[in-house]
């Protein structure tokens, strides 16, 4: 078993050109194993990029990357439900990552992946879903080390691969309401796609002007950037094999290169942190969840 | 729907809905039973339920005695085991389920797939209710749980309109329970890690939301009061304002499009569907849930009594006394949330 990097779905509403440019670079200039495609936050955004997935997927596959389609994390109205149905009805040659129980209904019995929004918190849930066709699970970001260890032990026994996010803002909550629209005094149905203005989310500060959270449409994310550079080796030893980089507008090519070097132990975690900061990240790094501390915290870990 | 003509006045005939009431303590449970609850919901004193607050919930001994008392009075007891067991600690949740079965609870309320499967296998004769914490909001998601685990009733997320609930009812083969009164959570329940991000305690794994031991009230020289959770200010109040409890999704924050601090998620409102009870019943909702296991006995008594009277009035073809239901919010602003219109989103 050797550790592999993955690129998570783009959570934010980037323009078509920005997305095409991003995936071109990922295909041509990075050594990542898997790339997740698909709109996982808001079905209203989905139409803009629908026609480009096939081309992007071809390009990525030609560059030797595995392509997986991620489904919407919150499914509510008819349009959302149709998207889930269509995704889950794709050819069995395509790999699907399910992020909501609506998808499970369609795909149970067929091979599928479980996304980080699927609430796989324990070995019983993992075993049950694996018995229904799941073969790969991305674990929730808030799982502490002790639980990851137990899950990894069970996953190894039943032949399931595990993945964890190691870089990027942490998905913290979903709502039916669009908070981007609300900030602009609009509603979800009449949102004018104001979320496109914030390529890494809209900053929320506390009333005493402390950076707090980031808004991405119906999603709330951390302000701090998760960075598990110090924990990478330990995660690998526990049995986690895939490490997800969540796309941001910093230099993701360099970010992927640095994490690859770290996995090969060509650089130290401390060197990796410095180099990743230089890709254009001003926000603090956070690793608290893994250490069973508040998620925004940075726990000094000398591994 | 059947329509009867009674004294030349058409009267709608509804299926009688169950009134589901909160029981945070044995005393509250007795109060709710006496006030006319058809069923009460409660949990053990640990992380196995989503209201794991200090001073709340039941020891095994209290649970057994309280269930006996409720059953004697014809009230059902629904056991909330509705958090997600983190790997390595699953036994605590199994113990809660097995104890509940031993005490003859009328249903388990669960969200976790592993736990639903455990109940379906080990206690197939006890009803399974899908918790709001499972965040199942479509016919597909709900049918998944019904088909896989034999779920008999689903508690719907507080994000659906009544038209959507009605539509869902046509497409699923199980009972629907909805919240009608109490706290109005904004985030999709079961999918929120905000408290863990700020405090290190998880809503999903520990059953905790904005834990009191990390709350601080700090007053400045002008007597402005800021409410804090962990290291962060959630809101700030002038000397003449009532300071609310610092819940992250009900705080005021700054964002670039706004000139002043604003409620980025929602104002601190109470949910009150008193006006919409007939519509909910018509949509096919068979159980009406009152939130508030953390509330006092007198609150439980007042709210349960009022809704008992309102539901009975509707069943008898009389107008419910909406004014008394509205008065229940004790001066707090109230909302019909998502139920009335999707403009809320």
Highlighted features:
heterodimer; A: alpha/beta; eight-stranded parallel barrel; 12 strands; B: 345 residues; alpha/beta; TIM Barrel; 2 domains; eight-stranded parallel beta barrel; disordered N terminus
Fold topology:
The complex is a heterodimer of chains A (303) and B (345).
Chain A lengths: L3 E4 L8 H14 L4 E4 L5 H7 L3 H10 L3 E5 L7 H11 L6 E4 L2 H7 L4 E3 L8 H9 L2 E5 L6 H14 L2 E15 L3 H5 L18 E5 L4 E6 L2 E9 L4 H7 L3 E4 L6 H12 L5 H9 L7 E2 L17
Parallel strand pairs in A: 1-2, 1-11, 2-3, 3-4, 4-5, 5-6, 6-7, 7-11, 10-12
Antiparallel strand pairs in A: 7-10, 8-9, 9-10
Chain B lengths: L2 E4 L2 E4 L5 E5 L3 H9 L4 E4 L17 H13 L3 E6 L8 H13 L4 E4 L2 H10 L4 E4 L8 H11 L3 E3 L6 H10 L3 E9 L3 E6 L1 H6 L3 H4 L8 E5 L5 E5 L2 E6 L14 E3 L7 E2 L6 E3 L4 H7 L3 E4 L6 H19 L6 H6 L6 E2 L1 H4 L5
Parallel strand pairs in B: 3-4, 3-17, 4-5, 5-6, 6-7, 7-8, 8-9, 9-17, 16-18
Antiparallel strand pairs in B: 1-2, 9-16, 11-12, 12-13, 14-15
Helix pairs in contact in B: 1-2, 1-10, 6-9
Write a structural description:
The complex is a heterodimer of chains A (303) and B (345). Chain A is built from eleven helices and twelve strands. Chain A is an alpha/beta fold. Chain A has a single domain, classed as Enolase-like C-terminal domain (TIM Barrel). Chain A starts with a strand and ends in a 17-residue tail after the last strand. The model of chain A has no long low-confidence stretch (mean pLDDT 96). Chain B is an alpha/beta fold. Chain B folds into two domains: 3-184 and 269-344, TIM Barrel; 194-263, no CATH class. In chain B, the strands form four sheets. In chain B, strands 3-4-5-6-7-8-9-17 form an eight-stranded parallel beta barrel, surrounded by six helices. A three-stranded antiparallel beta sheet of chain B has the order 11-12-13, with no helix packed on it. In chain B, strands 1-2 form a two-stranded antiparallel sheet. In chain B, helix 4 links the parallel strand 6 and strand 7. Chain B is globular. Chain B starts with a strand and ends in a 5-residue tail after the last helix. Residues 1-9 of chain B have low confidence and may be disordered. Chains A and B meet through helix 4, helix 5, helix 6, helix 7 and strand 7 of A and helix 4, helix 5, strand 10, helix 7 and strand 13 of B.
């Amino acid at each position: 078993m050797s550790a592999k990097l993955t690129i998570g779905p783009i959570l934010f509403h980037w323009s078509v050109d920005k997305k095409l440019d991003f995936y071109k670079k990922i295909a041509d200039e990075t050594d990542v194993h898997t790339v997740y495609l698909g709109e996982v936050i808001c079905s209203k955004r989905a139409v803009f990029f629908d026609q480009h997935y096939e081309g992007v997927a071809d390009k990525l596959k030609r560059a030797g990357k595995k392509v997986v389609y991620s489904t919407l994390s919150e499914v509510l109205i008819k349009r959302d439900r149709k998207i889930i149905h269509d995704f889950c009805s794709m050819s069995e040659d395509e790999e699907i990552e399910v992020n909501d129980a609506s998808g499970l209904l369609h795909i149970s019995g067929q091979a599928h992946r479980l996304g980080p929004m699927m609430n796989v918190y324990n070995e019983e849930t993992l075993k049950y879903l694996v018995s229904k066709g799941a073969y790969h699970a991305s674990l929730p970001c808030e799982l502490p080390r002790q639980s990851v260890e137990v899950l990894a032990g069970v996953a190894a026994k039943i032949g399931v691969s595990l993945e964890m996010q190691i870089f990027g803002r942490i998905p913290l909550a979903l709502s039916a309401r669009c908070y981007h629209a609300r900030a602009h005094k609009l509603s979800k149905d009449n949102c004018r796609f104001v979320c496109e203005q914030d390529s890494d989310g809209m900053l929320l500060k506390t009333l005493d002007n402390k950076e707090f959270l980031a808004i991405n449409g119906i999603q709330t994310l951390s302000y701090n950037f998760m960075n598990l550079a110090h924990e990478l080796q330990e995660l690998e030893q526990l049995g986690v094999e895939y490490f997800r980089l969540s796309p941001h507008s910093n230099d993701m090519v360099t970010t992927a290169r640095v994490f690859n070097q770290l996995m090969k132990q060509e650089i130290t975690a401390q060197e990796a942190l410095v180099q990743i900061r230089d890709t254009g990240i001003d926000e603090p790094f956070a690793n608290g969840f893994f250490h069973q501390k508040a998620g925004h915290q940075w726990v000094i870990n000398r591994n | 729907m059947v329509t009867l003509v009674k004294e030349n006045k058409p009267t709608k005939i509804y299926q009688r809905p169950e009134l589901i009431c909160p029981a945070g303590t044995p005393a509250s449970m007795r109060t709710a039973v006496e006030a006319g609850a058809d069923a009460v919901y409660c949990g053990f004193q640990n992380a196995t339920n989503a209201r794991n607050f200090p001073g709340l919930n039941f020891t095994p001994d209290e649970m057994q005695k309280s269930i006996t008392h409720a059953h004697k009075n014809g009230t059902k007891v629904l056991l909330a085991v509705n958090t997600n067991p983190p790997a390595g600690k699953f036994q605590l949740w199994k113990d809660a389920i097995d104890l509940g079965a031993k005490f003859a609870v009328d249903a388990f309320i669960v969200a976790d797939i592993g736990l639903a499967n455990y109940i379906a296998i080990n206690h197939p004769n006890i009803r399974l209710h899908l918790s709001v914490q499972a965040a199942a909001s479509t016919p597909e998601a709900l049918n998944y749980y019904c088909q896989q685990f034999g779920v008999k009733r689903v508690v719907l997320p507080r994000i659906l309109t009544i038209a959507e609930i009605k539509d869902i009812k046509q497409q699923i083969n199980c009972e629907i329970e909805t919240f009608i009164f109490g706290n109005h959570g904004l985030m999709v329940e079961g999918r929120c890690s905000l408290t863990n991000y700020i405090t290190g305690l998880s809503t999903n794994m520990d059953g905790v939301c904005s834990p009191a031991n990390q709350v601080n009230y700090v007053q400045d020289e002008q007597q402005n009061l800021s409410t804090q959770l962990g290291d962060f200010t959630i809101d700030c109040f002038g000397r003449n304002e009532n300071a609310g409890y610092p819940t992250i999704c009900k705080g005021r924050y700054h964002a670039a499009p706004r000139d002043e601090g604003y409620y980025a998620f929602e104002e601190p409102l109470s949910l009150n569907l008193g006006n919409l009870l007939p519509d909910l019943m018509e949509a096919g909702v068979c159980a009406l849930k009152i939130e508030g296991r953390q509330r006092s006995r007198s609150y439980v008594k007042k709210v349960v009594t009022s809704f008992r009277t309102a539901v009975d009035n509707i069943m008898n073809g009389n107008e419910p006394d909406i004014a008394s239901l509205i008065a229940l919010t004790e001066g707090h602003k109230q909302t019909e949330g998502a139920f009335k219109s999707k403009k809320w989103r």
